[in-house]
Amino acid sequence: METVRTVQFHELFQQNPDGSLSPKKVIQVGGITFGPGVAFGPGVSFGGINFFDIRGRNLAIVDQADGTVLIKGYY
Fold first, then answer.
1. I need a surface site. Which of 10, 38, 45, 56 has the fewest CB within 10 A?
2. Which three-class secondary structure state does DSSP give residue 12?
């Protein structure tokens, strides 16, 4: 059984000096997996989510056994 918990956006993503975003952990959303070292700008979507549009929101996540964070939703 998976346990869904809530985190704030900034717990999983950082804003880089150039304005781009990068994940702080390995993230999975909509079947797409990406992690630290990946930087992306506005208009880029992963799994159908443009993370610039949800900055500052809460994320519903599930911590996977391999350390990956599965994003289930946002609000």
1. 56
2. helix
**Cβ atoms of residues 22 and 14 within 8 Å:** yes
For residue 62, which of 39, 29, 22 has the smallest C-alpha distance?
29
Q: How many domains does the chain have?
A: 1
Query: How far from 43 is each of 2, 5, 58, CA to CA, in Å?
Result: 31, 27, 20
The rounded distance, in Å, linking the Cα atoms of 8 and 66 is: 21
Cβ atoms within 10 Å of 51's Cβ, excluding its own: 23
CA 22 to chain centre: 9
**CB contact at 8 A, 38 and 50:** no
Per-residue model confidence as pLDDT tens for the chain (75 residues): 789 999 999 999 999 999 999 999 999 999 999 999 999 999 999 888 999 999 999 999 999 999 999 999 999
